[in-house]
Design goal:
2 domains, 207 residues, 3-stranded antiparallel β-sheet
């Protein structure tokens, strides 16, 4: 992995500056793939596409933020405001519902992105833990998000069909999960068989 320079971006709502990290190169050596579609790769960090401004609390897509400049590593000549700017981060679990209701989910793809990331963020609470269930404080939000994501996914697209089956499995609708995994094309068959086996065992936890 080779990090690139940080982009200095301005919040579209209030103009506050933030540092957006970039990558010059990365790879998936040593990566772990999860049934909810998340890839954890030590040499390929998952950089945010949307964030919450630390100053005003507004949400914005980084692709739409004005770039004020570039901060090279160890640059001593950059403006102090650039060096002090906070690093852009993913929204937190409580942030995502706020983002979805704020208007930034302006089309299917953006809503799908936010709901997928909320799914991952909630699963992160148990992904590496012994706990088998999402904490009660987030259970209702998790189930509501999965039901909405299920409706957004297109079962005519092979990858989305497998993801839709995984959503059904994590909602404990094992029969629907197995049904969706019938007659998968070769390129997604392995992932589909993993999800199918878990559904047939009555397992609803991310794996």
């Amino acid at each position: 992995m080779i990090p690139g320079p940080d982009l200095i971006v301005a919040c579209p709502h209030c103009g506050a500056l933030a540092r957006q990290q970039t990558l010059l190169s990365g790879n998936t050596v040593g990566a772990v793939y999860w049934t909810d579609g998340k890839c954890e790769a030590p040499m390929l960090p998952d950089l945010p596409a949307v964030t919450r401004c630390r100053s005003c609390g507004g949400f914005y897509w980084l692709a739409e933020a004005r770039v004020e400049g570039t901060l090279e590593p160890h640059s001593g000549s950059a403006p102090e405001a650039w060096r002090r700017a906070p690093v852009v981060e993913h929204p937190t679990v409580p942030d995502y519902p706020d983002a979805l209701s704020s208007g930034v989910a302006s089309d299917r793809e953006r809503e799908r992105y936010l709901r997928l990331r909320l799914w991952w963020a909630i699963n992160d609470l148990i992904r590496h833990e012994a706990a088998s269930e999402v904490p009660p404080a987030y259970r209702e939000a998790a189930e509501d998000n999965l039901r909405r994501l299920f409706d957004l996914l297109d079962d005519q697209e092979p990858e989305e069909r497998v993801m839709k089956a995984e959503v059904a499995r994590e909602l404990a609708d094992f029969q629907e999960a197995v049904r969706l995994l019938d007659r998968l094309p070769e390129e997604v068959r392995f992932a589909g068989e993993v999800v199918r086996a878990l559904a047939q065992q009555g397992v609803s936890r991310v794996a």
